[in-house]
Amino acid sequence: MSEQNSAERPLEHDLLFDFLRVVEAAAVEAARTMGQGERKYSDQVAVEKMREVMDSIPMEGTIVIGEGERDEAPMLYIGERVGIGAKNGNEGRYPAVDIAVDPLEGTNLCATGADNAIAVLAAAEKGGLLHAPDIYMKKLVVGPSVKGAVDIDAPVKDNLHAIASRLKRKVEDLTIVVMDRPRHRQLVRDIRDAGARIRLISDGDLSAGISAAVAGSGVHALMGIGGGPEGVITAAAMKCLNGEIQARFMMPEQLEQAEDRAKIAEDIADRMAKMGIKDPSRVFDTNELAPGKKIIFAATGVTDGTILRGVRFFGTGKRTQSLVMTTETMHVRFVDTVHVEGGPDSFVRFDRI
Ligand code: VTB
What we know:
Elements: H1 11-32, H2 39-54, E1 60-65, E2 81-82, E3 96-105, H3 107-112, E4 118-125, E5 136-142, H4 156-166, E6 175-179, H5 185-194, E7 197-201, H6 205-212, E8 221-227, H7 228-241, E9 244-249, H8 261-274, E10 284-285, H9 286-289, E11 296-301, E12 312-313, E13 317-326, E14 332-340
Parallel strand pairs: 1-3, 6-7, 6-8
Antiparallel strand pairs: 1-2, 3-4, 4-11, 5-8, 5-9, 9-10, 11-13, 12-13, 13-14
This protein binds 7-O-phosphono-alpha-L-galacto-hept-2-ulopyranose.
């Protein structure tokens, strides 16, 4: 054992595989409910499992992005303390970690057995992840070769040309992922007018954003408005993958119709100010969303997806595929785990992934 002081040891050293266990376990629970049409239940089992495994980790964890505020979420609520170090008498003995969780990203995808549901989390040293409120966020996500070439405020056409030029291809050869929502009508029109291809997805812009930063995924950018918390977790992934996210918080769509619109807007601005966000309308870049120096990102496929396979059950065990990465070593690990359960006669099959 090294004598290195735990404060100097990389977080990855201590926690990477623990977080892998967390997302694997949550994904397995959720995957058991695939296609049941019960999205809340799918989410609940993932949350409960994630909470349980998280508590076995040698850390003093704080949930900074989770299932909601304390009064609306029984578990993994914002501010909840998790891990061995969060138990009475253990304070100060383990690394302090801020954690953003999305135990089941794409609850509908899981409930219908559709592609790209994942169990996911990001962790960092204290203050390493923006405490984003659960409101909409406009996002533009691109991979390493396009980093620095796009601007969320520029016309869609200009961004598409910039992406195409960096990727040394025609705009017609790009695939842009957009969530299929009425709020994206104009965006979709603009992308079509520019000539790029579009993949409309029903849910899950976090995993789509990650795909945009992985060469060979067939996805070249994510554009559009999705959840703010998912944007922060995407930013954590971008730091590990060298990709880029630009984002701007949006007031809820319903605001247009709400009578007390000004009041709601004020409340949101207030909540954001408390989270340290002084100008809610400005553009946030990757580093502002995830300023951490020691970021860990972990995700496991629940259903099959663009870059991760879903959980496979085979009688004597199950098999998961995960993406685990960290800014400290810049190792991006695709982890294929066989969870052997069938006793001494079970066998592990070799699978090319
Ligand atoms: C967004 C998106 C997520 O849910 O939060 C979306 O970021 C909810 O958006 O990836 P709507 O209110 O428009 O439905 C997800 O798609 C996860 O399910």
